[in-house]
């Protein structure tokens, strides 16, 4: 991003620099609009999943993983921007986007608490455990395209089964006592 000019952005968008400046005051504003829109859409996409009372916690986690994986594949370029260029935003805008990005993380806390009730006893574990799960999915953008032998749906199930199978067996109370 730092080496990209507003002219580079205009060329990539097949428009003129003056047209971009009509709508955006700077390349940072273009970046902000892209990241804000992506983070907003991402957060909203999880609401129906986490609020579905008919889904068992494990099924909810699988749907969450599948949704995130499919979005990371479909919006790979935006996902890379979120992961790599968030620091290019001014502090106030960075905070806005970061707040939006935390919504799906925090939304999955209650599901994780149901899968391993030990987590509810120490809320300081919620964010790290959620990030452990989400991080496993987020970094697949570097190598998983969904075009190979493994479909995104099957891969999301594999990740969830691996996480749940291991996570459900972690004695969090003993871990906390250390």
Q: Report the radius of gyration as a whole number of Å.
A: 19 Å
Strand percent estimate: under 5%
CATH C-level class: Mainly Alpha
Q: What is the name of the CATH architecture?
A: Orthogonal Bundle
Q: What composes the largest sheet?
A: none
Count of structural domains = 1
* Nearest-integer average pLDDT: 90
Shape label: elongated
Give the termini distance in whole angstroms. 43 Å
Q: List the secondary-structure elements in sequence, H or E.
A: HHHHHHHHHH
How many H/I helices?
10
Query: Segments where pLDDT lies below 50 for 5+ residues?
Result: none
Q: Determine the fraction of residues in helical runs and give it as a percent range.
A: over 70%
The CATH homologous superfamily is named Tetracycline Repressor, domain 2
Number of strands: 0
- Based on secondary structure, the structural category is mainly alpha
Q: How is the CATH topology named? A: Tetracycline Repressor, domain 2
Task: Describe the secondary structure blueprint for this structure.
Elements: H1 6-12, H2 17-23, H3 27-50, H4 57-74, H5 76-85, H6 91-107, H7 109-115, H8 126-138, H9 152-167, H10 172-177
Helix pairs in contact: 3-4, 3-5, 3-6, 4-7, 4-9
Protein name: TetR/AcrR family transcriptional regulator
DNA-binding region: 5-24
InterPro entries: Homeodomain-like_sf, HTH_TetR, KstR2_TetR_C, Tet_transcr_reg_TetR-rel_C_sf
Quick summary:
The chain is about 70% helix and about 0% strand. It is mainly α and about 180 residues long.
Using brief descriptors, characterize the structure shown.
mainly alpha; Tetracycline Repressor, domain 2; 70% helix; elongated
């Amino acid at each position: 991003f730092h080496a990209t000019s507003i002219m580079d952005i205009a060329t990539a968008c097949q428009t003129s620099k003056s047209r971009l400046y009509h709508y955006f005051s700077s390349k940072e504003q273009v970046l902000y609009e892209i990241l804000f829109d992506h983070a907003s859409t991402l957060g909203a996409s999880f609401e129906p999943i986490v609020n579905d009372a008919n889904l068992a916690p494990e099924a909810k986690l699988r749907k969450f993983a599948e949704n995130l994986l499919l979005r990371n594949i479909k919006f790979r370029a935006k996902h890379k921007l979120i992961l790599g260029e968030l620091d290019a935003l001014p502090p106030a805008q960075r905070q806005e986007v970061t707040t939006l990005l935390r919504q799906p993380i925090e939304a999955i806390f209650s599901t994780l608490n149901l899968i391993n009730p030990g987590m509810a006893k120490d809320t300081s574990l919620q964010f790290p455990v959620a990030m452990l799960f989400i991080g496993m999915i987020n970094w697949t953008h570097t190598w998983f395209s969904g075009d190979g032998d493994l479909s995104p749906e099957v891969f999301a199930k594999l990740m969830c089964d691996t996480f749940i199978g291991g996570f459900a067996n972690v004695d969090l109370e003993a871990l906390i006592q250390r």
